[in-house]
Amino acid sequence: MSVSSPAVLGIAVPSPLRRLFDYRPAGAPPEGGWQPGLRVRVPFGPRRVVGVVVECRDDSDLPLASLKPIEDRLDDAPLPADWLWLCRFTARYYQHAPGDTLHQALPALLRQGRALEARTRERWQVTEAGAGETPESLGRAPRQAELLTMLRQHPQGLLAQAILAQSFTRPQLQALEKKGLVTRREEPRTGPAEAGGPLLAEPVLPLNREQAAALAALHEGLDAYHPCLLHGVTGSGKTEVYLQLIEAVAGRGRQALVLVPEIGLTPQTLARFKRRFRVPVVALHSGLTDHERLDAWEAAASGRAPIVIGTRSAIFTPLAAPGAIIVDEEHDGSFKQQEGLRYHARDLAVARAHHHGIPLVLGSATPSLETLHRAQNGDYRHLRLTQRASRHAPARLELVDLRGRPAAAG
Asked: 276, 386, 368: which is closest to 329 by C-alpha?
């Protein structure tokens, strides 16, 4: 029996049991045949749940006639293979139930059976009036001004899902359209590509000698697993090294995943990346709505988003063409998930970079002991930035005697 028509589907369902559950395929098979990564709806006790096909086999420990058939197939094509590999690795490494692991790693709407597709294929462009409009004229609508500025950087326009994935909203688009500053047109659902053009929206900053040496070392391993600890004092310009590394990665048509420790750091990091690059930069964090998260997830999975920035859960974002993974402030404890599926996003980033054969950058001013140990043993390349990159004077440190002072605010 061929893989495309197996007798048994090993399915991961949301359950604390550390096993797959066998079902019989039913209904018309997908065009590419049954394969791992397809979502199905199955009976599970008194419930009807969404599961993910993990194995396609010809046999089972149970009699085939006793297996329940699936009720519905939800996908025509499987979920991304790199996402499925990472989930299976996570379940094994952290000894967690595979079904619950996949369930936690999926956006909420996909868990509920929503199709993995963009909500629209509208392309939005700036009109002649919008090209001549000054952002100051939209002073009472700062988000509209930011949106108009972004669209100006893309003369060929942007697809709606790429805009929505960058935390803009449809009412903001409609408001600009009503003012005659932007226009939209319908496009067929043809694929993931955005129009070509310049990669950078603003010039790069000059690097000092240490930054240039670190960047040159990172460029040596763009086509292989190349783990590096970027050990730089506060203000040494680690982010500029990240930006110029991502420029090289995106210039090759590949994607970069950047992990930051806290949701509070995401807006400022996102703003700096958006100022630098013309390509879509999407964010994934707990502050997004379910629709925004699905849009960002789909943009990354399809390759429309060359740059993905997010907190620890973003490590499970699928990438169509992975090119580099960056973990900023890798020592931060918030990369460790403490409830439910317990994992460390930094350690999964190491495993994922090794699996894809891409460079990994762990940046910190105070590296964790385990990362520092691996760098000293030669497992990671140790790149040091000892000088402040800014022209400002270094921060002055002084001791403050708290004895005899009131203990307020800690």
From this structure: 368
